[in-house]
Amino acid sequence: MEIQVPPGASLTKEQRTEMAKGFEFLGLMAEGGRARKRKGLPLVVPKVEVPKLLRGCGRAPTAADLKELMTKVPNEGIQLEDFLSLYETAAEKPLLNEYQLFDALRTLDLTKTDTLEPKGLKEILHGFGDAVTFGEVDKILSGLPRDGLGRVKCKDIARKLMKGPSDIPHL
């Protein structure tokens, strides 16, 4: 789910509630999370999980943007209100929409069929900018239908990328 926040605006009450669900899930799964909740202490999402939570809420920061955002996260992790503030900061940068991503993927298709060969896509994504591992590309492509030549539709890739990770419930 993409949580959209216009530049300079704050999250709505409904958005905060939805984000709190994903935050709570990761906070409870963290080491000592359940004990913190039993003691009435606020949940803390470990610093290493913050990028996953940002992506689960619809943000896809570049490595440089993520590095800058992560300087605001304490080493021991982040509490909900601080995460919501961090998300609002991350939301100041516009995201690609599904059509823009589809259009960018189409430019990689030399056959003009709006499809990509998975091996070629792996090499491209692994070799440029914020390099993606081959395993991550496999995860992106898993479950997507292939045509008779084993190619995947650019539209399907864009749609899956825009959905974000599927391993954070409620988002």
UniProtKB/TrEMBL annotation:
SUPFAM superfamilies on file: EF-hand (SSF47473)
Keywords on record: Metal-binding, Repeat
This protein's GO CC annotations: myosin II complex
GO molecular function: metal ion binding
Domain of life assignment: Eukaryota
Protein name as it appears in the record: Myosin regulatory light chain
Species assigned in the record: Cladocopium goreaui
Organism ancestry: Eukaryota, Sar, Alveolata, Dinophyceae, Suessiales
